[in-house]
Amino acid sequence: MEHNLSGAARPIRRLRKMNTAAEGCTMRDAFGREINYMRLSVTDRCNLRCRYCMPMEGVPPTTHGDILRYEELLRVAQAAVSLGIDRFKVTGGEPLVRRGIVDFIRSLKALPGVRQVTLTTNGLHLPSLLDGLLDAGLDAVNISLDTRDNAQYQAITRSSHTADEVLHAVRLCAGRLPTKVNAVLLSETAAQLVPLARLAEELLVDVRFIERMPLGAADASASEPAHKETIDLLRAAWPDLASVQKRCGNGPARYYASTKLNGCIGLIEAVSHAFCASCNRVRLTSTGLLKPCLCYEQGTDLKPLLRGGADDAALRDAIEQAVRGKPAAHCFAERQAVTERKSMNQIGG
Ligand code: SAM
Ligand code: SF4
């Protein structure tokens, strides 16, 4: 079955071999983009306070009642699968601070039709949870690390944790499951570009640099290294660094490879280079708002349906409604057009 939300007649295309009833669906938005990927936020809480993500204080804490229960998240996932969404990224806040997260990931991965479950984490709880996560069927992990310098890490994360703790987690994951290190590009960490990229030389990991987006606590006034500057710095270390067509995971990174590197270097030009034409995702906040685009506040609130006795058909309709409202492109380049006021930990980055 093809869910074509534009209203225009489109030929039905089977993009995958059908193994189960759920796997036969393809959902397209009004611009013909296939929507097959959902970022599921399980909490807005975090054990860090990264400067560009979360305010130090002042955000009214959500209560446990505000946050969707795991059964509710699974119900949304099941409805999404029946519409053609078959890959999920578990995120937050920090997903690994929520109790029961390993069993949730196990249940998510076990849903019929779910093809891939991945995780984005700051890595601090990975050493104690990694074995359980692997056993639960986790397919890949993204670990956030903006600097290898401990003092700088503490300043950026406004915490007493260290970059060494995160590096330990990265080393534990590398080679055991597909691992990416994600670093937000910050002016103060320009000297860390090459040391961070060197992780792709030392280990079997991809390292990706992400433009900071003007959301929530992010101060967009400071200038970050631009794309060309970043590539020039990296080419000075790896002269044969060349653009590759590789597409790793569901993200919009442009990848570069060198014969000296085990993994790839990725650049995610979230602000300057609109990759919206191939956007395949929606996001569910931890409080149940289904957001079709990061930069606009619009979304479809699924919580009243989940808690008000709505049946599966009504839930599917609501998901389709959110997808129907997906705009053609984000508006990060014109900051005044950004209507989303929540911070990244509340949205689910
Ligand atoms: N706590 C987990 C982590 O840090 O990976 C998951 C949630 S976090 C919000 C997800 C990703 O969003 C992280 O890689 C983080 O660096 C990124 N992020 C947060 N605020 C951002 C911003 N303003 N611009 C770009 N990326 C941001
Ligand atoms: Fe927490 Fe991740 Fe935000 Fe840092 S980026 S404050 S680790 S949610």
Brief write-up:
The protein is α/β, with parallel strands linked by helices. The protein contains eleven helices and 14 strands.
Range of helix content: 25-40%
Mean pLDDT: 87
**In sequence order, what are the helices and strands, one letter per element?**
EEEHEHEHEHHEHHEHEEEEEEHHH
- In total, the number of strands is 14
Widest β-sheet, arrangement of strands = 9-10-11-8-7-6-5-4-3-12-13-14
- Low-pLDDT stretches are 2-22
User: Which molecules are bound in this entry?
Assistant: S-adenosylmethionine, iron/sulfur cluster
Give the structural class.
Answer: alpha/beta
β-strand percent reads: 15-25%
Question: Any idea what the shape is?
Answer: globular
Largest sheet: 12 strands, mixed
Number of helices: 11
Radius of gyration: 20 Å
Terminal CA distance: 31 Å
Features:
single chain, 349 residues, alpha/beta, 12-stranded mixed β-sheet, two-stranded parallel sheet, 11 helices, binds S-adenosylmethionine, binds iron/sulfur cluster
Describe the structure.
The structure is a single chain. This protein has 349 residues and is α/β, with parallel strands linked by helices. Helix content is 28%, strand content 17%. It contains eleven helices and 14 strands. It has helices at residues 70-83, 101-110, 126-136, 150-157, 163-173, 193-197, 199-202, 227-237, 303-307, 312-324, 344-347, and strands at 2-4, 26-28, 37-41, 87-91, 116-121, 140-144, 179-184, 206-210, 242-244, 254-257, 265-268, 281-284, 289-291, 300-301. Strands 9-10-11-8-7-6-5-4-3-12-13-14 form a twelve-stranded mixed beta sheet. Strands 1-2 form a two-stranded parallel sheet. Strand 3 (37-41), helix 1 (70-83) and strand 4 form a beta-alpha-beta unit. It is globular. The structure holds S-adenosylmethionine and iron/sulfur cluster.
